[in-house]
Amino acid sequence: MLGADLRRVERMAQRGEIPCQKVGGQYRFNRAQITEWLQQQMGGMSHDHLAEVDAGMTAQRETSQDELIITPMLNREAVTTNLGSRTKDSTLRELVSLATATGKVYNEQELLDAVMHREELCSTAMEGGIAIPHPRRPLPDAIAEPILVVARTQGIAFGAPDGRLTRLFFLTASQDDRHHLHTLARLCRMVHDEDFVARLQEAETPAEIIELMTGREGEVVTLPR
To answer: Which of 146, 149, 43, 59 is nearest to 95 (CA)?
Structure first.
């Protein structure tokens, strides 16, 4: 899951950097706790660390290193350059509404409740005017397949660590933990590029955003790990 070797994970455990317990001289790791920890850490990880997590999830899911996982989720109905919301809650509602417009959501209220609960625990806003709202847990009964909403706003206060307004939102939800973490890692790698983010902020149409996202993911999966 971490894309790290045994010695590195052991050092992280010794320093208290990762959730674990020591039982009978052995470190024990709870998958749910590691999943929760990873979700909270990804926004602040370096590009190299994100690449390791991406590679780790690729191995976990037994997929090829050059598989595109973001591009297949891009849907014209779920991409907008003009999200009109001005508050955190109304933004989340509008993002979930866009997800529902794809026809892939079985239970809109369950998705909204899950996303809002995640934000109450800790904001998903990152530095650079970006946020990746998502549920804490997979939602196999609420969605038909993995979902990604891409939206741009004029900028709202969303709890970013650098205090900046958030302009770009990537709402995502999956049906299993592995795909969920893989999606988060790949998205974070993609937005770890100021030029790409600037081009997304200047895009005039949903089609242009989809083209930029597709091209950027292609670049990311061909980068040396």
So the answer is: 149
All structural domains of the chain: 71-222 (3.40.930.10)
CB 105 within 8 A of CB 75: no
62-104 pLDDT, tens digit per residue, is 888 788 999 999 999 999 999 988 899 999 999 999 999 999 9
Q: Is the dihedral of CA 223, 212, 119, 117 positive or negative?
A: negative
- Helix (H/G/I), strand (E/B), else coil: 20: coil
d(CA 191, CA 25): 40
pLDDT digits (tens, 9 = 90+) for 129-160: 999 999 988 899 999 999 999 999 999 999 99
| pTM score, whole prediction | 0.89
Cα angle, residue 13 at apex, residues 38 and 223 outer, rounded to 5°: 45
The region that residue 159 occupies, defined by phi over 0 for left and psi between -120 and 50 for alpha, beta otherwise, is left
Which band of pLDDT confidence, cut at 50, 70 and 90, is reported for residue 224?
A: low
Contact present, 186 and 152 (Cβ < 8 Å): no
DSSP secondary structure string for all residues of 49-113: HHHHHHHHHHHHHT--TT--SSGGG--GGGEES-----SHHHHHHHHHHHHHTTT-BS-HHHHHH
Q: What's the chain's Rg over C-alpha atoms?
A: 17
